[in-house]
Amino acid sequence: MKVLVTGGAGYIGSHVVRHLLESGHEVVVYDNLSTGHAWAVGDAELIEADLADQERLRSVLQAGKFDGVLHFAAHIVVPESVSHPVKYYANNTRNTLNLLECCQEAGVRYFVFSSTAAVYGIPDTASVAEDAPLQPINPYGASKMMSERMLMDLGAASDLRYVSLRYFNVAGADPEGRQGQATPDATHLIKVACQAATGQRGGITVFGTDYDTADGTCERDYIHVEDLASAHVRALDYLEQGGESQVLNCGYGCAYSVLQVLEAVKRVSGVDFEVHYGERREGDPPALMADAGRIRKVLGWQPKYDNLDQIVADALAWERHCLSRGLL
Ligand code: UFG
Q1: What number of other Cβ atoms are within 10 A of residue 178's Cβ?
Q2: Model pTM?
Q3: 257-301 pLDDT per residue, tens
Q4: What CATH code is carried by the domain that includes residue 13?
């Protein structure tokens, strides 16, 4: 298939681009390089452009005759979405609408959307299934929920079929060191902890120790970026084989607290970096864990890296690799 990948120079997008190329797809990346890197797209064609530039987007989609679009480009930092909601609705919701409009005009048949577990808000159950109520507690989750809704309505009204993948907490890096998280000023827990372990930061602050969880810190379902990437290729194949539109959780169904993650990073790195205990961060749900059955059933997806120490080891190796090559 010929596919357009928005945000393909970013962290998750670039891993998926590599998997798509390895599976024989023709890949064009559309990315404004605001947080991504040209080196991350490998052999794919890169169009440096913004999704807000709808004329450019329209002409790329009209000229390219793409079978499918994978849409990663978005802002992704929960606390930033609380302080800058318009930035999130503009880039995540309005630009998704721009994109869907252009896809419709260009007759794109398949769409794979990067959604998020943040659409659930604070779930009523320990593990959350796809049919749980959508009650986002931050603008990031709300911006993605609205995009899911637009996609659903467009899917109902046209021939477009889609898979919305609701990511839980994505971490790790390509075990062969070709790609990893290289976002400037990253805020995500495993990345920040690995930067502390490699001396790039003085330490790390735990945001809140008084949650109603086993050790008082937030619990999350961490998924290796390589497993997430393989889910995207399967989603695309599924659509090509005639599968109907789906919304699928992407997680392992296993949660770790912030303290457990920090222990793992210390154990795997052998570095006892400093840990400070701070206030809660705005917009954080106490616990999020996937009910991860549906994606296995529908896509036949089998994770290969379902192991926190492996996720941490690959994330650490990536930090060291970047340091030694001056990539960050
Ligand atoms: N945390 C710290 N210290 C840090 C960084 C994070 O204590 O320096 C804590 C956070 O407060 C939170 C947990 O670690 O409790 C995980 O935080 P991340 O920033 O790593 O990830 P989030 O859970 O906020 O968000 C991520 C993605 C979203 C996705 C969400 C689903 O960015 O796209 O996971 O859980 F929706």
Answers
A1: 15
A2: 0.97
A3: 999 999 999 999 999 999 999 999 998 999 999 999 999 999 999
A4: 3.40.50.720
Tell whether 84 and 211 lie within a shared domain: no
Give the number of the atom of ligand 1 that is nearest the alpha carbon of residue 144: 36
Q: Give the per-residue pLDDT at 191.
A: 97
- Together in a domain, 200 and 126: no
> Does the beta carbon of 145 sit less than 6 angstroms from any atom of ligand 1?
no
Quick check: is 108 in a domain?
yes
Q: Which of 307, 304, 305, 295 is nearest to 249 (CA)?
A: 295
Q: Express each pLDDT in 57-71 by its tens digit.
A: 999 999 999 999 999
Q: Is the CB of 118 inside a 6 Å radius of any atom of ligand 1?
A: yes
| Residue 181 within a domain | no
From the CA of 145, how far away is ligand 1's center (Å)?
A: 18
Closest Cα to atom 1, ligand 1: which residue? 189
Task: Count CB-CB contacts under 10 A for residue 240.
Answer: 14
Identify whether residues 62 and 208 lie together within a single domain: no
- For 218-227, what is each residue's pLDDT tens digit? 999 999 999 9
Cβ atoms < 10 Å from Cβ of 242: 7
Q: Which domain holds residue 203?
A: 189-220+253-325
Shared domain check, 272 and 241: no
SS3 80: helix
Q: 243 pLDDT exceeds 90?
A: yes
Out of 114, 145, 169, mutate this one to test ligand 1's pocket (max ligand atoms within 8 Å of CB): namely 169
Tell whether ligand 1 has an atom less than 6 A from the beta carbon of residue 128: no
What are the respective helix, strand and coil percentages of the chain, to the nearest 5?
A: 45, 20, 40
* pLDDT above 90 (res 304): yes
User: Does residue 184 fall inside a structural domain?
Assistant: no
- Whole-number mean pLDDT of the chain? 97
Do 144 and 215 sit in the same domain of this protein? no
- How far apart are the C-alpha atoms of 140 and 11, rounded to whole Å? 18
Residues 95 and 238 in one domain: yes
